[in-house]
UniProtKB/TrEMBL annotation:
InterPro entries documented for this protein: HTH-like_dom (IPR025948), Integrase_cat-core (IPR001584), RNaseH-like_sf (IPR012337), RNaseH_sf (IPR036397), Transpos_IS3 (IPR048020), Transposase_IS3/IS150/IS904 (IPR050900)
Transmembrane intervals: none
A Pfam family matched in the record: HTH_21
Superkingdom of source: Bacteria
Record-linked PANTHER family: TRANSPOSASE INSF FOR INSERTION SEQUENCE IS3B-RELATED, TRANSPOSASE INSO FOR INSERTION SEQUENCE ELEMENT IS911B-RELATED
Source taxonomy: Bacteria, Pseudomonadati, Pseudomonadota, Gammaproteobacteria, Lysobacterales
Chain ranges of the Integrase catalytic domain: 117-280
Protein name as catalogued: IS3 family transposase
């Protein structure tokens, strides 16, 4: 009614909506109750946290962020206010991946069985390659992920999907983490991972190569899941102007946000860095 006052008489609006004129005028002069004022303040906090975490968190994660910052609120209240004020998480695009029939033995045995787990950091790694669209063409990204903490321990980018791309990501992981012998290194059956040079690099670090079954992307679901998360949160409706712009955005996402800040429900709503800190406090040595 308040929005339509300039176009229609108040008496006509009251008749149409079945309210009294005195009730409408009393509502206009009434100050918001304490609960409404508290909700308005909390909505502003929710919006700020929503933008800070790149619109990636649902109600449960966002509620945990608020509680960690000293806000006294319930999860259902956060969900209600998000819904009422249009605070919406970025939506993942659904798609079906075609798969071939089961084939013979893979190039390396599949050592990583579902449910994917690792008792400590630097015990099981998984990696894959994806592409990021730019106006200059694809930017290819290779990553190596620690299955225990979900941390990206190695990554590399290039304008072409070369054999060297996967090797540079693995080299970064080895240099940064200095893993013990017998780490399981799991990939799909891409040519970059079945090459002799990649095998030699893994064997020189005393790693155990593991590969998915033919036509079964779910065997490498953890690496695929990271790429889905990256594309959802970094570029849902975005094409980068250049490969260099994409490089900077991917670097910032992995090193500043994903590894150090982004909560994972599987890690007890901790970031990969926070989760690994628990092992450091217990005196874990790789």
């Amino acid at each position: 009614m308040q929005a339509q006052q300039a176009a229609y008489p108040v008496s006509a609006l009251c008749r149409a909506l079945g309210v009294s004129r005195s009730g409408f005028h009393a509502w206009q002069s009434r100050t918001p109750c304490a609960r409404s004022q508290s909700d308005a303040r909390l909505v502003a906090v929710i919006r700020a946290a929503h933008e800070e975490h790149r619109q990636a968190y649902g109600a449960r994660r966002l509620w945990r962020v608020l509680v960690s910052r000293g806000e006294s609120c319930g999860r259902h209240r956060v969900a209600r206010l998000r819904r009422q004020h249009g605070v919406i998480t970025k939506r993942r695009r659904r798609f079906l991946r075609g798969r071939s029939s089961y084939q013979c033995a893979p190039a390396a045995p599949n050592r990583l069985a579902w449910p994917f787990a690792s008792p400590a950091p630097n015990r099981v790694w998984a990696g894959d390659i994806t592409h990021v669209p730019t106006r200059e063409g694809w930017l290819y990204l290779a990553t190596v992920l620690d299955v225990c903490s979900r941390r990206i321990v190695g990554w590399a980018m290039a304008s072409r999907q070369t054999f060297d791309l996967a090797e540079r990501a693995l080299h970064m992981a080895i240099v940064q983490r200095r893993p013990p012998p017998q780490v399981i290194l799991h990939h799909d059956r891409g040519s970059q991972y079945t090459s002799a040079s990649y095998r030699a690099k893994a064997e020189a670090a005393h790693m155990l190569l593991s590969m998915s079954r033919p036509g079964m992307p779910y065997d490498n679901a953890m690496a695929e899941s990271f790429f889905g998360t990256l594309k959802l949160e970094l570029m849902p409706d975005r094409v980068f102007a250049s490969r260099e712009a994409a490089r900077l955005a991917v670097f910032d996402y992995i090193e500043a946000f994903y590894n150090r800040t982004r909560m994972h429900s599987a890690l007890g709503y901790q970031s990969p860095a926070q989760y690994e800190e628990r092992f450091n406090r217990l005196g874990y040595v790789p």
